[in-house]
Each structure stands twice: as structure tokens, then as C-alpha cells.
Amino acid sequence: MRTFGMSEKGPVRDMNEDSYGSVTVGNILCMAVADGVGGESFGEIASRIAVDYILEAFKETLPFVKDKDSLPAYLKNIFNKANIKILLDCLEHRERMGMCTTLTAALLNGTELTIAHIGDTRGYLLHGSELIKLTEDHNEAARLVKQGRITEEEAKYHPGRCRLHMVVGENQYLNPDIYSYNISYGDIVFLCSDGLYSFMSDEQFKDCARNRGNLEDVCSRLITKAVEGGSNDNITVIAGRAEKPVCEA
Q1: What is the set of domains in the chain, with CATH numbers?
Q2: pTM, full prediction
Q3: Less packed terminus of the chain by CB within 10 Å, N or C?
Q4: How far apart are CA 34 and CA 204, in angstroms?
């Protein structure tokens, strides 16, 4: 499995509240992206805690997950432990009370893909010439799209896109969305923040990814396109390509 990620604060924001990372555990590529919520409310700390915790947890505990059918319960448990980690940090640093973050994590094992998701960071799949959105946003704009009251394009500019109804850092049990997909070798999985996907069309996204053999180039083009599209937010993307395992002689 190959992966590459990039993150920039963008041309408008003073700081970068996005965090991302990846780790390989055996044959499984683990990726995560988080977008801190709240600006002055220490969102950058919440996103870093979430990503650091979940990747470390994957390294320590994923080898003990027996089969893919156990992954949904495992991921829900890991997300809730990341939630507790943020809440405990708030108790230790009272000035951080209320900090929270989105969190999207992907486990790519050959052609088996599992995603756990809270918030409006997104997962995408590039399969051949088709770009497929893999996650649903947990905000008011997405709810209106689902109800048929606005279009996907209108949702990009709707004020409800900023009103999240699920985040990591809440004082309650979390129930993240869990998605399982069978993909193909050569497919590319993207995790990205709204500062990227909100400022380009699907066709522009695919055009940036035409050099799929070079993930660094793909990520660089995507961030450049988001800036050109007028992004007023932090911009983060991490990509992983499904590849056949190398057989040892």
C-alpha cells in the first residue's frame, strides 16, 4: 500500500486546525484526517489528539482484531476512547473546555476498505474514471440534501454546512458511521477536509488525480486547485492506493 498526505492552513486562516496521519499495521494501511472545530476553542489540539490517539491505538491493538466482521465494533470502541481522551484533556486544561473535532479513519487491507466517520471530513474513492463519495456529512446542509430540499451544489454554500450535529469531543457515547467496501487494486482512497472538497467540482478533483502513479503530485494538485477555487479554510488530503502485496521469495 502506498500513501501520501499534505496539509496547509490556506490563504485565509491564521492557523491550521486540521490533522492527518497514517500507519501501516501488517498488511493494513491506516489513515486518518481530523478537522478541529471552533477556531479560538483549541480545535487544532482536539484534532491532533484524535489523530495521534487513533493511529497509536491501531499500532497497538489492530493486530488482535480477528476478522473484518469485528472491525465495526472495534472502530466504534477506538473512536469512543479518542473521545474520552479529548474530554480528559479538557478537564486537565480547563481553558480548552468545549474543544472538539471531526474524525474520519480508513483501514485499507488489499481490496477491503473499512471507514469510520464523524463530522464533515470526507472519504472518496477513485475507481477508474469514477469518483465516489464514501461518507455522509454530519451537518445541517447534508440533512437538507437528504431531504431533497437543496442540491449537493447548493450545500457547498449553505450556512448549514457549518452546523455539525456529530463531533468527537462530546460528553456522550459516540456512534460513528461505519462503511465497508470491496474495491479494486489500483483504486485510490482519499480522506480530506472540507477546505479541499468544497472548492472544486468532481471533474476538477478527477483531473488533479490523473497522474495516479504519483500520489505526492496528486495531493499537491488537489491543494493547489482548492486554493485557486477560493478556499477560505484549512486544506488537507491524504491518499492511499490499493496495491497487491509483494510476495517474498
Answers
A1: 2-123+166-241 (3.60.40.10)
A2: 0.92
A3: C
A4: 23
